[in-house]
Amino acid sequence: GQTAGGDSAAPEDAATDSNGAKPQGAKTDGDVAALAEEVAGLNDQLQRALAETENVRRRADRDKDDAKRFAAANFAKDLLSVADNFHRALESVTEEILAEHPPLKPIIEGVRMTQKEMLTVFERHGIKKIDAIGQKLDPNRHQAVFEVPDESQPPGTVVNDLQAGYVLHERLLRPAMVGVSNIPALPFLPH
């Protein structure tokens, strides 16, 4: 630039006044470095805040989805006893009883159809029966009620299903109450 007298000022003189002092408000290298460090720190804080906001949004979305998926869990648990009663009713009627009392056949068929429809509705809403028989005991899905000496199965295998267990979208509603195989006791051998 030009000075008041029309002379061209050297670039290093542009940051000083006529007395050689820096004008008020001029920044030193130390000031610039401090400001750059502050900007970097603020940028880091901004990035962290944005990441945290995104995490909160994702958590809220997941919680909302879970609330939708599992809202009916208590209602579903209550319906499990109805499913159990259908199962017990059908188990209690043998072919011999039906042969002796033919008028029961349509009633039993109605109960079977109602049970089948209820299980279809369960499936539609993500409620699934736990298949326990033949599975290794899983304490997250099975509740062992008794042990059965059984050499045909490895120890800890579910061999009896007393009460069906159910899951709602892979979350346990009720564990299956089961009997589990164990190794038969060996007879006492004298020395």
Could you characterize what this model shows?
The chain has helices spanning 29-70, 73-92, 95-100, 104-124; strands at 127-129, 142-149, 158-163, 166-168, 171-174, 176-182. The protein contains four helices and six strands. With 191 residues, the protein is an alpha+beta fold. Helix content is 47%, strand content 16%. It is elongated and about 110 Å long. Helix 2 packs antiparallel against helix 4 (104-124). Mean pLDDT is 85; it is low at 1-6 and 8-14. A three-stranded antiparallel beta sheet has the order 1-4-5. Strands 2-6-3 form a three-stranded mixed beta sheet, with no helix packed on it.
Topology:
Elements (H helix, E strand, L loop, with lengths): L28 H42 L2 H20 L2 H6 L3 H21 L2 E3 L12 E8 L8 E6 L2 E3 L2 E4 L1 E7 L9
Parallel strand pairs: 2-6
Antiparallel strand pairs: 1-4, 3-6, 4-5
Please list the strands of the largest sheet in the order they lie side by side: 1-4-5
Percentage of β-strand residues: 15-25%
Q: What is the SS-derived class?
A: alpha+beta
The radius of gyration computed from the alpha-carbon positions, rounded to a whole number of angstroms, is 39 Å
Largest sheet: 3 strands, antiparallel
Shape: elongated
Number of helices: 4
Instruction: Provide the succession of SSEs.
Output: HHHHEEEEEE
Helix content: 40-55%
Poorly predicted regions are 1-6, 8-14
Tally of DSSP β-strands: 6
Any descriptors?
191 residues; elongated; three-stranded antiparallel sheet; three-stranded mixed sheet; alpha+beta
